[in-house]
Amino acid sequence: MPVSQLPAAVSGECVILPTSVGPLAIYVAGSGPPLLLIHSINASASAAEVRPLHEHYRATRTVFSIDLPGYGFSDRSDRVYSIRLMTDAIHAAVAFIRERVGAIPIDALAVSLSCEYLARAAVESPDAFGRLALVSPTGFNGSTQRQAAAGKSREVRGMLRILRGPGWGGALFRGLTRPSVIRYFLERTWGSKNIDETLWRYDILTTRVAGAEHAPLYFLSAALFSADIHTIYEALSMPVWMSHGDRGDFTDYRGKTIIEHRQNWHITPLSSVGALPYFEKPQEFFKLFDTFLAA
φ, ψ for residue 248 (rounded to 5)? Predict the structure, then answer.
């Protein structure tokens, strides 16, 4: 379906920004100090993944929830989706926020793989950011050191060509985004069958928009994962709060030893939740996040 038929993922004004990465959608709601929210990357991602945070913090903050390139109301054209593209989208969002609220440090929260892009943007423009919250961040699984050349991805050689082969990519994406399959992956994210049904319904809709397969195919090839992410995480100078659950697919954080000793990092393991704890235990998460923001 055309993107114009997609309903809004969260409340507030949806602004379409003309940027160097194409039309970029960002929802704006509330008033007060700025808070940037960034959804994860997967087959059915969108700002709907940060809905509980967006709706809660609009009462005390000016909340900016972005649709990254290839998702939601942002540009979904057939082009190269890269680490640089996603990071530049965050830079574009930051420029817009500073136009709206002034040149003050922006607190930001990202989820899963998008934590890598937020961290990279913060290393490149440290003065633009205040505090960073990384929810279930990627790059900490196993014990492999990820300190490759700057900007290098973890793309599996030849995989993208295979995924984008004539007719295969579209068929693969349609298979991965059947309602039952979306539910299956959400259950793996939650670590239980008690998923958020509103998010599931929105995921089905957003994967039906024209061009929805392009960014996810780059994601499946691992082209959007950073091979130098440990170098990036170690270079962060501002306060960072990392949180993660102990259920579902995202529970291997053995690699966090690289930053555990750093005084600006604060790590909170959360019990009995999956990768999106603010859906499962919102009040507990909000309290922890508020404490970090106020420290």
Answer: 80, -160
